[in-house]
């Protein structure tokens, strides 16, 4: 409530800490610019460590029903299922979408003709959590890489 009041009184940016999950729906799309949930941050940190492949960040979405994943592409066209391929040519599991590719300091919005290079950070959205293992396998390099 105090964050909403601060915004109404002229604060340019408002950040609030939300401990009660029931309040998350109230602040999304409202006056509060940034809502932080310690529980969600902890879950994302834990998921990063249990995912296979080179997964940098994981964020739980829709109360755990979906995930946003940042994975690093490694290898070459022989050892990787993503490196050297266009986004349209990657065999993504059902319910998985690539949102962007981060190459160095450049962010490329995902289009079918964008080619994934080794070292790229690929941002994926997975709405069918049963397909997470398939997504992880996409970013694991083959034995020929070593």
UniProtKB/TrEMBL annotation:
Keyword vocabulary terms for this entry: Ion transport, Transport
PROSITE patterns linked to this entry: RCK_C (PS51202)
GO process annotations (BP): potassium ion transport
InterPro entries hit by this protein: NAD(P)-bd_dom_sf, RCK_C, RCK_C_sf, Trk_Ktr_HKT_K-transport
Domain RCK C-terminal: 56-141
Pfam family, one: TrkA_C
Domain of life assignment: Bacteria
Keyword Transport annotated: yes
A molecular function GO annotation: monoatomic cation transmembrane transporter activity
Keyword ATP-binding: no
Protein name as it appears in the record: TrkA-C domain-containing protein
Organism: Halomonas daqiaonensis
């Amino acid at each position: 409530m105090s964050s909403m009041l601060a915004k109404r009184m002229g604060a340019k940016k408002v950040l609030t800490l939300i401990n009660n999950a029931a309040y998350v729906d109230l602040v999304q799309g409202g006056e509060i610019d940034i809502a932080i949930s310690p529980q969600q941050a902890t879950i994302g940190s834990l998921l990063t460590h249990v995912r296979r492949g080179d997964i940098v960040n994981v964020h739980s979405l829709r109360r755990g029903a979906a995930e946003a994943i940042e994975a690093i592409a490694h290898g070459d066209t022989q050892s990787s299922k993503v490196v050297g391929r266009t986004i349209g040519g990657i065999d993504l599991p059902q319910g998985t979408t690539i949102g962007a590719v981060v190459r160095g300091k450049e962010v490329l919005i995902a289009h079918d003709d964008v080619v994934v290079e080794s070292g790229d950070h690929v941002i994926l959205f997975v709405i069918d959590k049963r397909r997470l293992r398939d997504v992880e396998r996409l970013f694991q390099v083959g034995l020929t890489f070593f």
